[in-house]
Amino acid sequence: SIVYLNGEYMKPEEAKISPMDRGFLYGDGIYEVIPNHHGKSVGLGLHLKRMENGLKEIGIEYNTEQLREVVAHLLEANEGDDLNVYIQISRGTYEKRFHGFPEKVEPTVFLYTWEISEAHVADKEKAHKLKVVTADDLRWQRCHIKSTSLLGNVLHFQQSYGEGLNETLLFNEEGNLTEGSSSNAYIVKDGVLYTPPLSDELLPGITRHILLAILREHSDIEVVERAISKAEVFAADEIWMTSASKEVGPVVEVDGKPVGNGEIGDVWLKAQALYSKYCYDFD
Ligand code: PMP
């Protein structure tokens, strides 16, 4: 495969970054993961926009639209019908130990791709059933920024993965749902879909944005963005988690207890089918 680093294409083993890079030493950067199936990206423009917003929040001016041609080149050069594109932009390399934003530093721009599974199908038999645990959200107060400082998320993910499970559902100090360690969260109750509203407590997921837009436009499923308590999570008929790679992931177990009747729900089936059909309409 080939990767892109600071204006050049090369083999991964040829890509060299200084250990003085702020991304390495401080986790001082922003990243994106964009899914692509059969050469078609899902929400590329939305991902690039979120990245530019994140960069602006950390004081890096960068026009991410210029990366469209890099993404296109990598998709063409690298094999596989189903590829994720990873983009990372760090503040750059600076020789002194200094916490502030150094002046006159060029950001480090790195892209690579990897093969993923085929686009998901709305099929209860084939869907990956997710089992999750709950935990207090112990991350920072800027979770809307897709920061490369992922230690908080890594530790939360491990709380479930370490038990052989798939995700950790996080709750804020008021006991309300925020999101998962690497995905957004939803419950279904009596046919209505609920998800926490956007705030600095969660990442504005691109899959979330696309899913809600599709359901509002193409279905009669009511979508409500509001706070969700832990009691509501345990009483839910269905729970879903979304991310670029999960798409709409059905959860069948929380803290060892079945969600609803412990089977994948009918509202999920409808939602994943609509997502599969319309997600490529979104740039
Ligand atoms: N929340 C967190 C904390 C994430 O890391 C991610 C992405 N892995 C998401 C939500 C989902 O975002 P997206 O749909 O853009 O992949």
Automatic annotation (TrEMBL):
Pathway participation: Amino-acid biosynthesis; L-leucine biosynthesis; L-leucine from 3-methyl-2-oxobutanoate: step 4/4; Amino-acid biosynthesis; L-isoleucine biosynthesis; L-isoleucine from 2-oxobutanoate: step 4/4; Amino-acid biosynthesis; L-valine biosynthesis; L-valine from pyruvate: step 4/4; Cofactor biosynthesis; tetrahydrofolate biosynthesis; 4-aminobenzoate from chorismate: step 2/2
Keyword vocabulary terms for this entry: Folate biosynthesis, Pyridoxal phosphate
What GO biological process terms are annotated to this protein in UniProt? amino acid biosynthetic process; folic acid biosynthetic process
Q: What GO molecular function terms would the record report?
A: 4-amino-4-deoxychorismate lyase activity; branched-chain-amino-acid transaminase activity
Example of a GO cellular component annotation carried by this entry: cytosol
- InterPro entries referenced in this protein's UniProt entry, alphabetically: Aminotrans_IV (IPR001544), Aminotrans_IV_CS (IPR018300), Aminotransferase-like (IPR036038), BCAT-like_C (IPR043132), BCAT-like_N (IPR043131), Class-IV_PLP-Dep_Aminotrnsfr (IPR050571)
Reaction catalysed?
Answer: L-isoleucine + 2-oxoglutarate = (S)-3-methyl-2-oxopentanoate + L-glutamate; 4-amino-4-deoxychorismate = 4-aminobenzoate + pyruvate + H(+); L-valine + 2-oxoglutarate = 3-methyl-2-oxobutanoate + L-glutamate; L-leucine + 2-oxoglutarate = 4-methyl-2-oxopentanoate + L-glutamate
Enzyme Commission code: 2.6.1.42, 4.1.3.38
Cofactor dependence is on:
pyridoxal 5'-phosphate
Q: Does the keyword Lipid metabolism apply?
A: no
What CDD domains does the record point to? Answer: D-AAT_like (cd01558)
> What family name appears in the similarity comment?
Belongs to the class-IV pyridoxal-phosphate-dependent aminotransferase family.
UniProt function note: Involved in the biosynthesis of p-aminobenzoate (PABA), a precursor of tetrahydrofolate. Converts 4-amino-4-deoxychorismate into 4-aminobenzoate (PABA) and pyruvate.
What is the protein named?
Aminodeoxychorismate lyase
Organism of origin is Reinekea marinisedimentorum
